[in-house]
Amino acid sequence: MQEIVILLIKSLAIGLIASVPLGPVGVLCIQRTLSRGYLAGFVSGMGAAVADAFFALVAILGLSVIINFIETQQFLMRAAGGLILIFIGVRIFISNPVRLMWSGRNNNQNHFSDFMSVLLLMLTNPLAIFLFLAAFASLELVTPKPGLLASFAIVTGILAGGALYWLLLSSIINQFRNRFRLRILFRINRSAGVLIVVFGITALLSLLI
C-alpha cells in the first residue's frame, strides 16, 4: 500500500509539472477566465489534464498500435494542431469580451465546448506520450508489467496534478478579474488572440524546418 501512495504522490508531481509551461493552453485558460469567469478557465484546463492522463495511460500500457500511429501521423497531427490554434486565436481576437461575459453567465453549455476544444487541441500534440515515457523511466515508476492498481494510481495522480494546477491558476486569475475595465479586457483579448495565432504559425513553421 505504501508503494501505491508513493506512486500517487510522484505521479501528482509529474501531472503538476507537466501543466506548468505557459503555452497556448495556459493563455487560453487565462483569457477565458478573465472573459467568462473561473469555471470557464478551469474547465478549459481540465481538457488538458484529461489529455495528459490519456497520454500517460498509453505510455504505461505501452500501446504500440497507438504509439506507432502517432509516430507515422505526427506531421498531420501537428499541422492540425497549428491550424486549430490559428482558428481559436482569430476567434478570440475578433470576439467581444462583454458578450463573452454574458454568454458565460447565461449559457453553461459553453463549458462543454471549452473542455472539448482544449482536449482536441492537446490530442493533436501527442509528443507528450514520449515525455511521460521519459519521466516514468527516470523516476522508475513503471515496471515492464505494471499492475492494474499501480496503473490506476499513476493515471489518477497525473490527472489530479493537472487538475490542481488549473484550479490554482484559474482561481488566482479570477481574483483579479473584477479589477479590469472593459477597455483592458478588449486589449487582453486582442493580445491573447495574437499570441495564440503566433503559437499556431510557429507550430506550422516547425514542420517545414
Description:
- Helices cover 84% and strands 0% of the residues.
- It has one domain.
- With 209 residues, it is mostly helical.
- The chain is built from 10 helices and no strands.
- Taking the alpha carbons of the first and last residues, their distance comes to 48 Å
Q: Radius of gyration in whole Å, from Cα? A: 18 Å
Kindly give the count of domains.
1
Overall structural class, as computed from helix and strand content, comes to mainly alpha
Beta strand %: under 5%
Q: Please state the overall shape, judged from the principal axes of the Cα atoms.
A: globular
Mean pLDDT: 80
Low-confidence stretches: none
Helices, by number, come to: 10
Q: Total number of β-strand segments?
A: 0
**N-to-C order of helices and strands:** HHHHHHHHHH
User: What is the helix fraction of residues, given as a range?
Assistant: over 70%
List keywords for this structure.
single chain, 0% strand, 209 residues, 84% helix, mainly alpha
Sum this structure up briefly.
With 209 residues, the protein is mainly alpha-helical.
Write the layout of secondary structure elements.
Layout lengths: L1 H18 L4 H13 L1 H24 L2 H9 L1 H21 L2 H10 L3 H14 L4 H12 L8 H28 L6 H27 L1
